[in-house]
Specification:
Elements lengths: L3 H18 L1 H22 L42 E4 L3 E7 L9 E9 L3 E9 L2 E2 L9 E6 L9 H6 L14 E8 L12 E8 L10
Antiparallel strand pairs: 1-8, 2-3, 3-7, 4-5, 4-8, 6-7
Length: 216
C-alpha cells in the first residue's frame, strides 16, 4: 500500500507538466495519464459497495407497499393524527397503556391499549387485527375485548376503561372527534408469545364525505 502512493504522485506530476507545456499533444497525453491515475486509484481504493440492511423485517409489514406505515401503531409523546378516506386498514398513535391483574390473579395479566385510528369521526370500525391475526382467530377466544368509538362529537368515555383502570381513564377522557379502539388483552404465552401485538383495524373513513351510491 505505501509504494502505491508515490506511483500516483509521479503519474499526476506527468499530467500537470504535459498539460502546461505540450499544447494539443500535451493535452492528449495528459488526458491519457489522467485515465491511468483513475484506474490505479480505483484498483487501490475500490469504491465501497452499499451494505445490505441486517435488521429483520417486521412480521406482516411490507415497507414497499403503498401506505404501509399506516398499519403500524406508534408510541410518541407528540404525533399527528391521520385522515382516513374510503375503506382501508389503519393503525395509529397509542394514547393510553395500562396493565392490571387478570381474573386468575396474575399480575399484569390484563393489558389495555387505546389506539386512535383517525383524527375525525368515521362511518365504521370493522375487523381488528392483532399482529397478523384477526380478532376472530380461534387462538384469541376469551382473551380479547375490543370497544369501538367512531369519534362522534358527543361520544362518551369508554365505560370499561373507567371501571377497570383505577382512575387512570376517567369520564373526561371522551375522545370527541377521534375514532379509536380500546383493547383489553388477557396475555398468555400461547396466544401472545411475543407479548402485546401491533393493533390495526379496517376503517370506513370520514363520514362527512358524500357517498354517491347512497346519497348520504
Amino acid at each position: 500500500m505505501p509504494a502505491a502512493v508515490p506511483l500516483i504522485a509521479v503519474v499526476a506530476s506527468g499530467v500537470a507538466s504535459a498539460a502546461v507545456g505540450g499544447g494539443v499533444l500535451g493535452a492528449l497525453v495528459g488526458a491519457g495519464a489522467a485515465l491511468v491515475v483513475t484506474a490505479v486509484g480505483g484498483a487501490i481504493f475500490p469504491a465501497r459497495k452499499p451494505s445490505v440492511p441486517t435488521t429483520p423485517a417486521t412480521t406482516g409489514f411490507d415497507a414497499s407497499a403503498p401506505g404501509a406505515g399506516r398499519t403500524q401503531s406508534v408510541r410518541q409523546p407528540i404525533t399527528e393524527h391521520q385522515i382516513v378516506f374510503g375503506r382501508c386498514k389503519v393503525s395509529g398513535p397509542i394514547v393510553f397503556l395500562h396493565s392490571a391483574p387478570d381474573d386468575q390473579g396474575r399480575e399484569d395479566g390484563y393489558f389495555y391499549a387505546v389506539v386512535v385510528l383517525a383524527g375525525h369521526s368515521v362511518r365504521s370500525i370493522g375487523e381488528v387485527w392483532l399482529g397478523d391475526k384477526s380478532e376472530t382467530d380461534a387462538s384469541f377466544a376469551g382473551l380479547v375485548r375490543i370497544d369501538r368509538h367512531l369519534g362522534a362529537p358527543d361520544q362518551a368515555a369508554d365505560a370499561n376503561l373507567i371501571a377497570e383502570t383505577g382512575g387512570q381513564w376517567t369520564a373526561a377522557h371522551r375522545g370527541r372527534g377521534r375514532a379509536y379502539v380500546a383493547v383489553r388483552l388477557k396475555l398468555t404465552a400461547e396466544a401472545f408469545p411475543a407479548g402485546p401485538p401491533n393493533i390495526a383495524a379496517i376503517v370506513e373513513g370520514a363520514d362527512t364525505i358524500l357517498d354517491p351510491r347512497t346519497g348520504q
